Amino acid sequence: MKDTDWRILHELYHYRNITKAASALYITQPALTKRIQIMEQEFGVQIVMRGKYGVIFTSAGEYLAKCAEKQVQFMDEIRHKLDYLQNSQKGTLIVGTSYSFSRFQLPVLLKQYRKLFPEVEIEMVCVKSNKLAHMVEVGQVDVAFVRGEYEGEAERMKLSDEIGYVLCREPVDLKRLPELGQIAYDIGTSSQQRIEEWWNLHYDRPARITMTTSFIDSAWQMVREGLGYTICFLSEEMVEGLELWRCPMLDGQGQAVRRATYFLYQDVDGAADYVKGFVQMVGDGIFPLDGKGMRDSAL
Q1: CA-to-CA distance for 230 and 241, rounded, in angstroms?
Q2: Which of 46, 73, 100 lies at the terminal end of a domain, its last residue?
Q3: Number of other residues whose CB lies within 10 A of the CB of residue 50
Q4: For labelling, which of 1, 122, 128, 227 has a CA lying 20 to 30 Å from the CA of 167?
Q5: Nearest by Cα to 98 from 65, 141, 43, 138
Q6: Same domain for 264 and 247?
Q7: Coil, helix or strand for 52?
Q8: Residue 267: pLDDT band by 50, 70, 90 thresholds?
Q9: For the CA atoms of 113, 116, 119, 125, what is the dihedral angle to 10 degrees?
Q10: What is the pLDDT of residue 292?
């Protein structure tokens, strides 16, 4: 039995008329009659008899017609499911990210992701972390990588901790920092708060900011040129790759000041496969969150 044979039986049982069934199936009456004859030969039973007003199903035909109804329904369900799965492999994944994460860590993940979902378009929204947490909750982005602690109802995974460092081209006495020029850059509110808490713990006057830039890697370049120092949170591997003098920021107990990186997302129940796949990849930890293998990028 072909799949089309089950549908022929299903339609013929519904109409009880060869002409109407053939029309619904977009085939000729002789072709439909021929397929019924082939089915009868295959099963060795008579399926229908011609009546005055159409066809009459025999007992065997009634049984096969009920089987046909189940088979047609089953095949329709399969096609609908396959259509859904096919469509859920396509779409646009909107990824919210802080600048530093998009610059040094996100490309590795996206490279792996595109191998599994080559037809998915990826749109990156690069804004401060304090905005990203809200964007996930209201559905403006599908997922987000956030630096620091932010309240909200979104699901979250803690990915890593970065240590706070003072970076300078040459070694410097930290007691002299208020006298030296600091190179500031655009940073999220949570990270900025951690830096200010550390500064206020050790100094009784504000930092002397002599230069301001939008991006952290621009600040590093200024530091390389001897234009001042900067303060930032980075993994040990990335800091070593910068080849700058560094000193960790210590809290009142002598512990390194740290900042966490989180992956935020909404409940994936009912989400498209390409969103679920991205969340699963991050959860499986298949890419280096500590910056390893990205030294060239950091430079």
Answers
A1: 16
A2: 73
A3: 9
A4: 128
A5: 141
A6: no
A7: coil
A8: confident
A9: -20
A10: 41
- 117, two tokens: 């979902």
- Give kind and range of the element (H or E) at residue 130: helix 129-137
pLDDT at 89: 63
Of the candidates 138, 145, 108, 125, the one whose C-alpha atom is nearest the C-alpha of residue 259 is: 145
What is the residue range of 243's domain?
Answer: 161-258
67-102 b/e (C-beta count within 10 Å ≥ 16 → b): ebeebbeeeeeeeeeeeeeeebbebebbbbbbbbbb
Q: 165 with 278, same domain? A: no
Residue 80 forms part of a structural domain = no
Take residue 122 and report the two structure tokens written for it.
Answer: 């990826």
The answer to whether residue 181 sits within a structural domain is yes
pLDDT band at 8 (very low <50, low <70, confident <90, very high): very high
Half-sphere exposure of 20 (CA within 13 A, CB side): 11
Residue 78 is assigned to a structural domain of this protein = no
Share of the chain above pLDDT 90, in %: 54
Residue 83 resides in a domain: no
Structural domains counted in the chain: 3
- Written in H, E and C, the secondary structure of 54-82 is CEEECHHHHHHHHHHHHHHHHHHHHHHHH
Is the pTM higher than 0.85? The answer reads no
